[in-house]
Design brief:
Elements lengths: L11 H9 L7 H4 L2 H22 L3 E3 H12 L6 H9 L3 H4 L1 E5 L5 E5 L2 H15 L4 H8 L3 H13 L3 E6 L2 E6 L6
Antiparallel strand pairs: 1-3, 2-3, 4-5
Helix pairs in contact: 3-5, 4-5, 8-9
Length: 179
């Protein structure tokens, strides 16, 4: 026996990457620099994010994407700037997701399921008669900032309307659009 265990041919770091799903992470050495590197990172990112994006209701902040992606890559870490540039290459047609910038300036990766997100939001509002950002955050288990952005997007699309009172901002189904 040569002392080599044929059943354990992988380094521990490499086996951890395989168990998470990134078997051959994109690197500058393997994919060059600039646009080609970012497109390759974007494709790898899209494959890795498919499940987590669905679980998160179709939207993840870029900071969350950065953390999840680097956790999955193990020792082959990517800079925040490279993650943002990779996200810029995502298209709904090719990857089923894209980078969006909310009016607050927050960058998110959003799946191409905007309609189902808005349908869920509207159902939540209908079942409660009205909704605040805090209510939506609790009911949908999403961050408060994301709840605010979704309500604003729904308002911009005419799905909901707001009532600003001394007690806060309440959102209601926009019945004016149904007339």
């Amino acid at each position: 026996s040569s002392g080599i265990n044929a059943e354990w041919p992988l380094r521990p770091g490499k086996s951890a990457l395989l168990s998470i799903g990134i078997s051959n992470p994109v690197t500058r050495e393997s994919h060059g620099t600039g646009t080609s590197y970012h497109k390759s990172l974007g494709s790898e990112l899209a494959r890795m994010l498919d499940g987590p994006l669905r679980e998160a209701g179709g939207v993840l902040s870029v900071s969350e994407v950065y953390c999840r992606y680097n956790r999955a890559r193990g020792i082959e870490l990517v800079s925040p700037e490279d993650v943002v540039n990779a996200c810029k290459t995502l298209t709904p047609e090719q990857h089923g997701m894209e980078l969006k910038k909310f009016s607050s300036g927050v960058l998110v990766v959003e799946g191409d399921n905007f309609k189902s997100i808005m349908d869920n939001l509207l159902q939540t509002i209908k079942s409660n008669e009205c909704c605040t950002a805090m209510n939506l955050s609790n009911v949908m288990s999403i961050p408060l900032l994301l709840a605010k952005e979704r309500l604003q997007a729904a308002e911009q699309h005419g799905i909901v309307c707001r009532d600003e009172t001394d007690d806060g901002i309440f959102f209601y189904e926009n019945l004016f659009c149904l007339m």
